[in-house]
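Ticket #4471: structure export looks truncated?
Reporter: QA, pipeline team
Priority: medium

Steps to reproduce: submit the single chain below to the structure queue and open the exported record.
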Amino acid sequence: MEIVSRRGTLFEVKHSFIETSSLLRFMKDYEQHIFLDKEGYVKEGFMIETSSYRKITKRVANEKDEGYIPNPKSFGLKKANLTITTKAGTFKIDSIIVIEKDFSNVAVTGKLNAMYFLSPQAKFGMVQSRVVSDTDLRLDRLATLISGNQIVGYIAGEFGRLNFKEGADLVESN
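Actual output as written to the record:
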C-alpha cells in the first residue's frame, strides 16, 4: 500500500499486489485505489487493470451492505509494548487494532481476524498488518452476488473453501 496523492482532505491510497497466492494470481494485474479521510472512512474507490489502464469503479458500502463498518474506531484497540523490524526500520509498537468478525451473506460465510500494529514513529501510524480468514463460498450463489463484476471470469469455479493469511509490512515512509 502506498499513499500516492492528497485531494483536499482526502488521501489516495494505492494497493498493489506484489506477491499473491496461486489462487489470487489474477490480482497482480490490478491496482486498487481508495480515497479516505483522516478518520479512515472510505469516500471513493476504483481498480485499474494495469495492462490496459481500464478503470473499474467500486461502490462504497453503505449501512445496509455487507462489510460496512459504522465506526472504524469501535474495534478493539489494545496497548502493546513490542518492537517490529521491517525494511523501513525498527519501530516501537504502542498499540494494536484488533478486528474479529463473523460474516454471512448470500454467497459467503466465514470469520475474519485482523491485527494492525501501530507506532508513533511511523508517519501514518501502521507498521504491519496481519489478516487471517476462514471462508466458505457457496458457488451456487456466487454468480448472483458478483454478476456484473468484471473479475467473475477469473474466480468462478476456483473457490470453495478459502483459508488465507495475508499481511503487509512498512517498506518505506517519506
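Status: closed, not a bug. The export was complete when the record was re-opened. Leaving a note from the reviewer for reference: Residues 144-159 have pLDDT under 50 and may be disordered.
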